[in-house]
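Late entry, FE2/S2 (inorganic) cluster complex.
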Amino acid sequence: MYVCVCQAVSDQDIRRAVARGARTFEDVQTCTGCTTSCGCCETEARELVDATLESERRAPALPVAA
Ligand code: FES
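Prediction complete; structure with ligand written out below:
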């Protein structure tokens, strides 16, 4: 499912960015380009980043292959 239609960033792309080391919303923005056009996806993207980071704190993800 696309979170950011403008940049074609999916929920999986955001989760993958966090799994690969993004630790803030701004990190995810830099990695994916999410929210960098119209910005209407920002609330949903921030919520997903926060939820993914919280989930990782509770159960760290296995390393992601390059
Ligand atoms: S939908 Fe994400 S920047 Fe437009």
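The chain has one domain: 2-58. Will revisit in the morning.
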